[in-house]
Structures are given as C-alpha cells and as structure tokens.
Amino acid sequence: MSKSPARARGAATSGSVEVVVAGGCATAALARAKNRNRITSAMADELMALFERIEDDDEIGMLEITGAGEIFCGDFEAGVNPNLVESLAVLSKPTVAIINGDAIDAGLELAMAADIRVAIADAHFALTQPSRGAMPSFGGTQRLPRL
C-alpha cells in the first residue's frame, strides 16, 4: 500500500477529479467549483477509469466521492458517458457519497448510486428535469423510490 497520497488531475478548463488514495480508501473530489462541480465528459472519463482501478486494486478497499467547495454536484454537462452512474453503482467495494452541499439532477443521481450517502444539514436535493419537460437519464426515477 502506498504511504503517500496519489493524486490525479485533469485540465482546469474541463474540470478535474482530484484523487487521493491513503489508508486503503480512495477519495475523489469533483473540482469544478466555479461551475457547481458539473461533471464534464473528461471528468466522467477520469471517474470511470478510477472506478475500474478501484475494482482491480486489492489495496483500495473503498471509495468516497465528494465535491470541492460548497456543492456536491450540480448536474452533468452534455455528452457525459451514460455509463458513469451505473459504473459507480456496480462497484463491488463500498462507496460513500459525502454530500457537502447541493446535489442537483445528475449530481443527485450520482449520489444515489453510492452505497451510503452522508449529507450536511443544509444540502439541497432535486431532480428538476421534469420541470423542464425531461426525465432523469441516469437511473434517478428508479433509485429514488427504492431509497
């Protein structure tokens, strides 16, 4: 097991996922606070690669995912791989969404795909797609009633 934290970053213009692995736990922070931590295609690719790494690495026993700043995730940008949320849901190791602020639309769907969700007291949760004439596209209509 690595004694020092391992970090990975994407391009600042497309957002990034800051990853720290320590003590058998991988922590992924969505780092695009100026854009409400909206996940871009590049960030989705980083997350899916991380999920695969965690699945295959016997030294990583769990994943926690959170947002940078005061929001968890305010949605996904257009073009995000539709398999992102399901890739988190099927991870065989425990996953925890640390909801440090609002989880809106696809951001809430991402949080619902984790095994455990822990939120700050004033976090807001919403699936607003129906108010715009659309449906949640990452499993939210199935996961929300089950939870």
Poorly predicted runs are: 1-12
In which range does the helix fraction lie? 25-40%
Helix-strand string: EEHEEHEEHEEH
Strand order, main sheet: write it out.
1-2-3-5-7
Q: Tell the overall outline.
A: globular
In terms of DSSP E residues, the strand content is 25-35%
Rg measurement, Å:
14 Å
Structural class by SSE content: alpha/beta
Number of helices: 4
Mean pLDDT: 91
Number of strands: 8
Largest pleated sheet = 5 strands, mixed
Distance between the termini: 34 Å
Core attributes:
147 residues; alpha/beta; five-stranded mixed β-sheet; three-stranded parallel β-sheet; 25% helix; 25% strand; globular; disordered N terminus
Descriptive account of the structure:
- By secondary structure, this protein is α/β, with parallel strands linked by helices.
- It has four helices and eight strands.
- Strands 1-2-3-5-7 form a five-stranded mixed beta sheet, with helices on one face. Strands 4-6-8 form a three-stranded parallel beta sheet.
- The chain is about 25% helix and about 25% strand.
